[in-house]
Backbone:
DNA sequence: GTCTATACTCTGATAGAC
DNA sequence: GTCTATCAGAGTATAGAC
């Protein structure tokens, strides 16, 4: 009484996504994945050359998805509101899908210098920041904002804050960074 | 012709520190550690009950060391200069000892809510921030600054920035956060 | 294209001789 | 207090039957 038992890349990826979401990268192993698909581990290798290929596929999907989330959140808003909304969406996504988010900034993740989904994601934030600061290609402020957002996500997740403080820290820090961008824009046409 | 061959907790910790610094937590394993000490793996268990105890000892040492570094860097400076110096020291330490730093913010690290070395570290930064913002127990701004610093460290390390931008992002972001603290202080006696 | 069976390497940890 | 020997488990990946 074999189950559907027909393996396709998409079916494998779907189950792999579930394992990733539940237990993180370290829980995405070939044996449990095969078990969840009612298949022997060796069968997976007919569809993906190795575990790394599986992770890469999930990583690309997460980059694309995350990028779309940020764009949707900021679409049609004025520059400061757009960036604020994107920042909120950033936080929400990282909370909702911590392990997908973790995949995006894993050590082996390709730097966003090379074309690809990660680069697209970078460009989305770069565009929002540059619009607010009215500074073309404002990498410095993009880096600063991204560092703040990522650091907040990581610290919050690791429980390094107590129970108080985190949310206030987010609003305070974000306000400080966005206000500075706005201030620069005001002084720019000088 | 056995080597010094006498095992002490400090000797073990010293070698463990080397392994950690070279390859991170995942490189700190009992077999390589024993080999480096010219000893059999089982011998280590006479001095440490398990691997976790070893990691905990290294983590406490790193917290204490890091705290001392920040205090030394900021000692005797005016509030803004003190905080800026501490931030620079934070970055330098994380760059110089990435794996010790990584231990401090590992998922299993105790939240700085409980007394201990981690709490002391938190209090150091909290004190510097509160002095500048002239806001007692200013957890929100401490969280914001810490998030920024940690995020910057992580992103820089993972190569997520290109070759340009990082350093400018650090100065820009730090300036924005510290200026806001100073501004709040100015408006406080109101 | 899935199966059985297995090779290989790594991990932490323990029992008991000396 | 270090040793030999071993347990028990994890992991990725491959060969070859069907």
Residues:
């Amino acid at each position: 009484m074999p189950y559907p038992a027909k393996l396709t890349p998409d079916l494998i990826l779907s189950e792999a996504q579930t394992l990733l979401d539940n237990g993180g990268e370290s829980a995405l192993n070939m044996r449990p994945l095969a078990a969840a698909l009612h298949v022997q581990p060796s069968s997976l290798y007919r569809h993906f050359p190795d575990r790394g290929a599986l992770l890469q596929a999930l990583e690309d999907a997460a980059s694309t998805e995350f990028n779309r989330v940020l764009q949707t959140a900021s679409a049609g808003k004025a520059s400061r509101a757009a960036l604020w909304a994107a920042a909120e969406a950033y936080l929400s996504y990282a909370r909702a899908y911590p392990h997908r988010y973790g995949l995006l900034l894993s050590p082996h993740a390709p730097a966003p210098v090379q074309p690809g989904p990660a680069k697209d994601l970078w460009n989305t934030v770069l565009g929002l920041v540059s619009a607010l600061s009215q500074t073309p290609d404002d990498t410095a402020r993009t880096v600063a904002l991204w560092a703040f957002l990522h650091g907040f996500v990581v610290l919050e997740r690791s429980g390094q804050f107590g129970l108080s403080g985190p949310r206030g820290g987010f609003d305070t820090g974000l306000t400080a960074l966005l206000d500075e961008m706005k201030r620069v824009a005001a002084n720019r046409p000088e």
